[in-house]
């Protein structure tokens, strides 16, 4: 799981998402609720491990050990050198959105929403996802009341989402080798 505000920042920059933060909040909330329901009906503690993206980036060795212990596998040093492989190099060269695959794990993308999302965008995310954010110990920074937005706001969101889509497509045209394949 990852803080939905940081998910929104990454998605805003990605060619693979034209999502506005409000719509990404709805999607994140829906997906987490689906996972919660599936976990209740089909999973137990023996076959489910919750891993927070933030733990993976801030404490990667400890978190990988936790994952590997869960899988009854050993941690190997080369797991931390994934970025040196030919596959990582090839993938990173295909798209601006994949460039970080060729770098070691860094915590730069944790709490990036504080710099890259407006207060309004943060409000949308926290108002839609707040209940689950609290459950997963993501602090809420804004006072939110509900997730209802006006028809006028929905029109603005639609316009902004289309703008994001075309902005990312244009960027991809110049920087992504796989533009024509997509």
Notes on the structure:
This protein has 182 residues and is mainly alpha-helical. It is built from eight helices and no strands. Helix 1 packs across helix 2 and helix 2 packs parallel to helix 7. The radius of gyration is 18 Å and the shape is globular.
Helix-strand layout with pairing:
Blueprint: H1 4-13, H2 21-42, H3 53-58, H4 60-70, H5 86-94, H6 113-116, H7 119-135, H8 151-175
Main beta sheet: none
- Please tally the helical runs, counting DSSP H or I stretches of 4 or more residues: 8
Helix content: 55-70%
> Which secondary-structure class do the elements indicate?
mainly alpha
Q: Taking all residues together, what is the mean pLDDT?
A: 84
Find the count of extended strands (DSSP E, 2+ residues): 0
Give the CA-CA distance, first to last residue: 28 Å
Element-level helix/strand string = HHHHHHHH
Strand residue percentage? under 5%
The low-confidence parts are none
Computed Rg: 18 Å
Net shape? globular
In short:
This protein has 8 helices and no strands.
Q: What are its keywords?
A:
8 helices, about 55% helix
């Amino acid at each position: 799981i990852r803080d939905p505000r940081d998910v929104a920042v990454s998605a805003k920059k990605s060619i693979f998402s034209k999502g506005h933060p409000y719509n990404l909040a709805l999607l994140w909330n829906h997906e987490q609720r689906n996972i919660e329901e599936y976990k209740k009906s089909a999973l137990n503690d023996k076959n489910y491990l919750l891993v927070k993206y933030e733990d993976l980036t801030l404490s990667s060795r400890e978190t990988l050990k936790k994952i590997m212990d869960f899988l009854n596998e050993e941690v190997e040093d080369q797991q931390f050198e994934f970025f040196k492989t030919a596959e990582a190099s090839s993938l990173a060269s295909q798209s601006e959105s994949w460039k970080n695959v060729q770098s070691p794990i860094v915590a730069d993308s944790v709490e990036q929403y504080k710099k890259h999302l407006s207060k309004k965008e943060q409000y949308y995310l926290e108002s839609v996802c707040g209940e689950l954010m609290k459950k997963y110990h993501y602090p809420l920074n804004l006072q939110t009341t509900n997730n209802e937005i006006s028809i006028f706001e929905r029109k603005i969101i639609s316009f902004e989402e289309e703008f994001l889509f075309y902005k990312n497509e244009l960027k991809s045209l110049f920087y992504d080798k796989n533009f024509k394949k997509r």
